Amino acid sequence: MDLIFLVIATIATLSAIMVFASKITFKSGLFLGAFMISIAILYLKLFAEFIAGVQILIYVGAILVLILFVIMLVGKEERILTINPLRIFLVSIMIILVIYSILKLKLKTYIINKYSIEELSSVLFEKYYLPFEVVALAILAGIIGSLFIAMVKEVKEK
Amino acid sequence: MIEYIVLSFILISIAIIGIITTKNVLRILMGVEIILNAAAINFVAFSKMYNVLGEIFVLFILIVAAAEAAIGLSIIIMLYKYYKTLDLEKIREMRW
């Protein structure tokens, strides 16, 4: 539990809160981008450098850009919801109880600190090759499906 | 390491509270992405204690999240074309 982890974790938590708490939808999209980049830095801290690179490429580079495109198409502002102190009190008590029970877990205190891309690639392409191909087909089906949903020529007005 | 698990729990709970209290459909989609990312950091933290299977599963989570985000965004575009608004208080056709 050192200083870098505390700073990055605080940035991630505040970005996640600000995704829902800002009035302008585009700003909440940008806070989502900050959240994803801070999660990628945490992956680097855990010696998972391939996952960090893939996260920046795919999440920030493709998914976030798509979300920002759709926000710019259908932008909407929204008022911040009212604050109810009783709800905040009850939810914070539940969160403190769960965190207390998590801290009682007896986990290993060391992590495997070597960069893992060779082991990951050898296990992925030898033992788990079938799920790899199946997931590639799944994303192909997703692309074709999303094209097919949005390809209607005229939309009957409500 | 236990601080990653506590962080993952805090992020998932923030995202769930945000999803059920917002009225904007795009914020719900962004909350779903926050949940997926928080679960992924949990997987990688556990993977670094034992063996490399958690990272492989995180790769699959990433790919499936990309497919799901694309389909969700196309549904949102069609929703906007049909209802002319994205306010969830007004889209009530399937509610009781």
Question: Can you put this structure into words, describing what you see?
Answer:
The complex is a heterodimer of chains A (158) and B (96). Chain A has helices at residues 3-21, 25-45, 49-73, 85-103, 117-126, 129-149. With 158 residues, chain A is mostly helical. Chain A has a domain at 3-109: Up-down Bundle (Four Helix Bundle (Hemerythrin (Met), subunit A)). The longest helix of chain A is centred in the middle third of the chain and has 25 residues, at 49-73. The mean pLDDT of chain A is 88. Chain B is mainly alpha-helical and 96 residues long. Chain B has one domain (2-83): Helix Hairpins, CATH 1.10.287.3510. In chain B, helix 1 packs antiparallel against helix 2 (25-47) and helix 2 (25-47) packs antiparallel against helix 3. The N and C termini of chain B lie far apart (46 Å). Chains A and B meet through helix 1, helix 2, helix 3, helix 4 and helix 5 of A and helix 1, helix 2 and helix 3 of B.
- What share of residues of chain A is helical? over 70%
For the record, the CATH architecture of the domain at 3-109 in chain A stands as: Up-down Bundle
Mean pLDDT of chain B: 90
Number of helices of chain A: 6
- Based on DSSP secondary structure assignment, what is the total number of beta strands of chain B? 0
The CATH topology of chain B corresponds to: Helix Hairpins
The CATH class of chain B turns out to be Mainly Alpha
CA-atom Rg of chain B in angstroms: 16 Å
SSE string of chain B, helices as H and strands as E: HHH
Runs of chain A with pLDDT <50, length 5+?
none
Q: Helical percent range of chain B?
A: over 70%
Main beta sheet strand tally, sense and closure of chain B = none
Full CATH superfamily name of the domain at 3-109 in chain A: NADH-ubiquinone/plastoquinone oxidoreductase chain 6, subunit NuoJ
